[in-house]
Amino acid sequence: MVWDSGPPERRGTGRGRRKPVVRYAVMARDERFLLLRRRFARLALAVAGSFLGWYFLYVALSAFARDLMARPVAGNINVALVLGVLQFVSTFALAWYYARYASESLDPIAAALREEADAPAAIRAAPRRSELRSPAVEDDPTPERRTRPAPASAEEPVAFADEPAHPAQPEKEFEEGTLPEPEGGPENVPGPPGDPAEEIAEPAVPPAGDEAAPAPGLTKTAPATSANGTDRVPDAPSAKQAPDVNGAERASEVNGADPVPSANGVKPTSGANGAEAAPSANGAEPAPSANGARAVPGSARKQNGKPGPVPSPAKPKDDGPDAWSGTGARPDPGWLR
Amino acid sequence: MIGHVLGGAATLAASVPPQDPGTASGNGRTVTFGLFLFFIVVTLGITVWARLNTKNAVDYYAGGHAFSGPQNGIALAGDYMSAASFLGIAGIIALSGYDGFLYSIGFLVAWLLTLLLVELMRNSGRFTMADVLVYRVRSQPKVRTASAVSTVTVSVFYLLAQMVGAGALVALLLGIHPGETFLGMSAEAAKTWTIVVVGALMIFYVMFGGMKATTWVQIIKAVLLIAGGIVLTALVLARFGYNLSGLLGSAAASSGKGSAFLQPGLKYGKDVPGDGYHTLLNKVDFISLALALVLGTAGLPHVITRFFTVPDGRAARTSVNWAIGLVGAFYLMTLALGFGAAALVGRKAIMAQDPAGNTAVPQLAKALGDHVGGPVGGDLMLAFIGAVAFATILAVVSGLVLASSTSLAHDYFGNVLMFGRPRESQEVAVARFAACLIGVLAIVLAVIAKNMNVAFLVALAFAMAAAANLPAIVLSLFWKRFNSAGVVSGIYGGLISSLVLVFFSPVVSGKVDPLTGQSLSLFPKGVDFHFFPLENPGIVSIPFGFLCAVLGTYLGREDADTRRYDELSFRSLTGAGSV
């Protein structure tokens, strides 16, 4: 603290806490999300209620109904033993049921929402703070957003044309659209945030992206200062954009954006880069080979050769709490604004 | 220094110590000791490898988030099944019959609650519990500090229980009884040295290897433990012709308690004839223990830090499912081990070694080995189980030290003292230093307490985790109105109430064994300031923790940040933006 050059004025929102990400709050009103939440709540209540009820019934029987527990069932095996073993059986069964239900009924929705929310397009489209009418949000203006006006405008319209509004669909086309990075074919790029194909691999990348991230630091340095001020203006007053519009709007944007990344070259690419570059740090790990992350290092190394800090790798992760710079020891100027 | 100590010990080991009639014969000791050394060498090698592959904070705290679900599941099982649950539960079953099973069921069922929370926490957190808690609150430093205090407190108490247990256990495993010497050490010196060596090793693993080394130590330990459990269970069942009823009957017969041995009530919730009040107290105490066990697991810091070693919520779910499978399978096996020890070793022989029954499994291993392969077989089995126990202790204490040093460095140093912007290298350096500090503290406390009865600390750690951490986690994730004041008051309320209630409970003062007149409390006989009648505070402190969290929220006069709550909720359920 003594040797920290920056004034501590922003205490409480340091990198330890994730930056608020407005688009998540917006998407929290999405129908699909509400459905997901309802389903999870139902599932969690059902599982928790049944196992706690059954367990405490068993405990109560053990404490107060010893005659019942002592009753023999077969040979020396008594009711207590059978009930005890049934606790094991029920635990295994509930765990299995939970995992099955989650992967069938929750994961697909969650994956779709996640991809939509973290897609480069969604991030560009993010400045929706206004919709929330929440006044004092120091949001971390993403570079994408700032640059948006210029390059994005070129492509976006085109894209809008093809998919009007299948909010649920976008993921599929999405990754195809997003991934075409200049250098690595899509097949080399298991990671990029929008890839539903391997659900495990997909998130495997982000963390990496984050840690290697030369990104957030750099991103912030340049634009942050200027953008910060200006950005804040719009949000407070405008309550115009009603939340309901969002769904469709965002969806179209997401879809529309597909072409953008590749054409645009600026951020989506960098986003991908970051994600891939990241694992290079990890690349050395031998052990967790089963992991989706495994595939990444290859591409990572490839791209590593490149000069390095491309603008904003960790975009989808922009909110990552401690986006430490890849070099580790370098204090992150973005924080000292 | 470790190398020096062990090297010296190893040369001494060559001069075979005098034969003794206890658990370990001279050969057995040498083999046991050799296996210890082998395990130490392997794990040190892993630590060196991990050090070379730990390049940044994410590697150090969370193994680069790069472990797979099954790997992390095995490590979770290794992290969770302490010597208390491996040797302790089997020992309770061997001595008190069915009641040990009650304990293990609580330990297992608790994982379902963990399963419900794990994905949400993985999706919204990064390294520590506080990362989840601070997302939606307005006052980060207070919440971080409270969370670090709770993490360190719970971990240190649990650590103390493990280290003191380790001292006694290793001395027993090496077959050193009071009055005997081994390598020139008396039993007392052996206890002290064990604590110091275990402590030094754990510090070394954590300081240098961070999460990667700790995880691999835990994985190896879990594999050894399950393998040992399978071998022993198979041998026990084979002895009884795979007839479970026969095993139970034989155990009940040699326990001297008849069929009561197979029913609940010998240890927990005892009936006190003619004293309704004490009977009821015993039963409430038992329910209180069950409550702490079932709600505590999801709040244990060393379990929580393991959630973050996988890439995403889905892998976290997989890992908890693996952990449930392994932990459940192992606790089912303890049933066979415990009853097998009761039947084959006998109550008297177990009590002679250790009145708490912790040596029941090693003794059973020896008995089974003798039966299968003669004295050599017995020595080998005993040595193997001893090494498993040693690995168990090391794996668990490393996990505890890592959890608390992570919290101190990341939560307190990084985000409170440094306002959230330390250099990464600084924070990791602080984490390493904190690991050393906590390790040394634990060693010193454990050496001081090495002859005290600290078994209650495990239950206390569970009660504190359930009372302090669980309300904060659950309400953060699911209650829109929750705020910083609620988090802080919930954590401190749960923590302090648990500690105070235990301090004024019979486990600290005033409990006397009616038969022997010995003190069963922490303090010697004659000191009695207890007024809280229960030994397990959970039934009071857990609701109190929740109550404090709710009251704090309303009295805190702080608006909840509902927008951030929406974000947290979106994130935790979908995994968007997870790192």
Task: Give the arrangement of secondary structure elements.
The complex is a heterodimer of chains A (337) and B (579).
Chain A: H1 22-27, H2 31-64, H3 66-70, E1 72-74, E2 77-78, H4 79-118, H5 120-124, H6 129-132, H7 143-147, H8 149-162, H9 171-178, H10 201-212, H11 215-235, H12 243-257, H13 259-264, H14 267-282, H15 295-304
Antiparallel strand pairs in A: 1-2
Helix pairs in contact in A: 2-4, 8-12, 10-14, 14-15
Chain B: H1 2-14, H2 26-52, H3 57-62, H4 69-80, H5 83-96, H6 99-124, H7 129-133, H8 140-173, E1 181-182, E2 185-186, H9 187-239, H10 244-255, H11 276-296, H12 301-307, H13 313-344, H14 347-353, H15 360-417, H16 424-448, H17 456-478, H18 484-503, H19 538-555, H20 562-574
Antiparallel strand pairs in B: 1-2
Describe this structure as you would to a colleague:
The complex is a heterodimer of chains A (337) and B (579). Chain A has 337 residues and is mostly helical. Helices cover 60% and strands 1% of the residues of chain A. Chain A is built from 15 helices and two strands. A two-stranded antiparallel sheet of chain A has the order 1-2. In chain A, helix 14 (267-282) crosses helix 15 (295-304). Chain B is built from 20 helices and two strands. In chain B, helix 13 runs antiparallel to helix 15 (360-417). A two-stranded antiparallel ribbon of chain B has the order 1-2. The model of chain B is unreliable at 1-23 (pLDDT under 50). Classes of the chains: A mainly alpha (337), B mainly alpha (579). Chains A and B meet through helix 1, helix 2, helix 3, strand 2 and helix 4 of A and helix 3, helix 4, helix 6, helix 8 and helix 10 of B.
